Amino acid sequence: MGRAVVNKLLHGATVQLREAGERGPDEAEALASVVARLFDLEAAPADAPEAPRKNGATGGHEPAEKS
User: Fold this and answer.
1) Of the candidates 1, 4, 29, 53, which lies 20 to 30 Å from 62 by C-alpha distance?
2) What are the residues whose beta carbons fall under 8 Å from the beta carbon of 4, sequence distance 6 or more?
3) Domain ranges within the chain, ordered by starting residue
4) Planar angle of CA 56, 19, 66, nearest 5 degrees
């Protein structure tokens, strides 16, 4: 249930990040910078490979779990 709540809260933000990436690297970088500041995250180097997720996936949309 906790995962479903987190997915619901973050869904809009992840959609916006994905769409910014589709609009171009400048917009994606600007939005990613804001997200990093909001969540106090360190920026990864641009040439760094994406870290695998727990399930082995490296990206893409994962639908929210239904309860």
Assistant:
1) 29
2) 64, 65, 66, 67
3) 2-38
4) 55
Q: What is the pLDDT of residue 15?
A: 92
The pTM is what? Answer: 0.50
pLDDT at 13: 86
Q: pLDDT per residue over 19-61, tens digit each?
A: 999 999 999 899 989 888 988 888 666 666 665 655 555 554 4
Dihedral sign (CA 22, 25, 26, 28)? positive
DSSP annotation string for 13-48: HHHHHHHHHHH-HHHHHHHHHHHHHHTTPPPPPTTS
| pLDDT attached to residue 61 | 47
**C-alpha span between 63 and 30 (Å, rounded):** 26
Helices 2-23 and 25-38: crossing angle in degrees, nearest 10, is: 150
